[in-house]
Task: inverse folding
């Protein structure tokens, strides 16, 4: 294992990579504002013939993610396509038509079940749970849901986690996501099905989209993942057999403050499997 230093620019990292699988939250925006230099970097890569697939654990379908990006000033031209954990969750629901579903999440995520054949039901009547997040992620933690999850476990209800993230940036704060609830349910002995990073299906779908846009088969060696989470972005890329550029401005920013280079021992401690490179923020 070798030392890692921070790279200043994406163009010094991509080499022969022709496809970027870029995280959104923490890389392209922080939930409140977009990062213009990151958007510019992805756009420049595209203009040089590359393909950019935004790969996100957002518990909403891709068109809803796109609307949010537009509101934050991220132009459609910045990327080639979007794949979300919400898309994959919707595929699960479509494959189980007519089910009674207990939906756990904020009202803003209601597009997760838009147009699907299901019945929203109370926990006592549901056949499974779809979790898109906490009802109030500004004030609640997963522990607030322990009694509900114990009840669900007694009924042996599967929980479909539409966002495996534990926390995410919102401005300068970290807020809890559906993954925090799912992990607690798993600790309590409940069955959890995860859709999104670091799990393989979202990468397989991203590669399908990349090959459609490239018009050819794409080798794993041509793909670079970009993300800010060790648990989801880095672990997912490693598990799928692709390189990862790790951006430290996101949820791990405090751990990297004041560090210019990581020695091999620190690399192993922080990452386990090291990324291809480090950047503080995405720039071309």
Result:
């Amino acid at each position: 294992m070798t030392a890692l230093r921070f790279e200043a620019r994406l163009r010094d990292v991509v080499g022969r990579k022709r496809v970027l699988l870029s995280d959104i939250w923490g890389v392209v925006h922080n939930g409140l504002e977009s990062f213009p230099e990151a958007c510019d970097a992805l756009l420049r890569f595209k203009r040089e013939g590359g393909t950019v697939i935004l790969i996100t654990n957002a518990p909403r379908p891709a068109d809803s993610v796109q609307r949010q990006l537009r509101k934050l000033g991220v132009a459609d031209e910045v990327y080639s396509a979007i794949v979300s954990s919400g898309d994959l969750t919707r595929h699960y629901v479509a494959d189980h038509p007519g089910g009674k579903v207990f939906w756990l999440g904020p009202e803003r995520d209601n597009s997760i079940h838009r147009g699907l054949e299901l019945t929203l039901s109370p926990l006592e009547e549901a056949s499974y749970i779809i979790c898109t997040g906490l009802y109030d992620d500004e004030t609640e933690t997963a522990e607030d849901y322990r009694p509900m999850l114990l009840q669900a476990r007694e009924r042996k209800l599967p929980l479909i986690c539409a966002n495996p993230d534990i926390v995410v940036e919102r401005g300068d704060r970290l807020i809890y996501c559906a993954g925090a609830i799912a992990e607690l349910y798993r600790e309590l002995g409940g069955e959890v099905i995860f859709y999104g990073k670091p799990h393989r299906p979202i990468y397989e779908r991203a590669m399908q989209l990349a090959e459609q846009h490239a018009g050819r088969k794409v080798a794993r060696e041509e793909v670079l993942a970009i993300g800010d989470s060790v648990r989801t972005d880095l672990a997912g890329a490693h598990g799928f057999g692709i390189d990862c550029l790790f951006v430290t401005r996101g949820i791990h920013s405090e751990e990297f403050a004041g560090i210019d280079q990581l020695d091999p021992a620190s690399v192993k401690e922080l990452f386990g499997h090291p990324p291809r490179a480090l950047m503080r923020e995405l720039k071309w």
Summary: The radius of gyration is 19 Å. The chain has a mean pLDDT of 92.
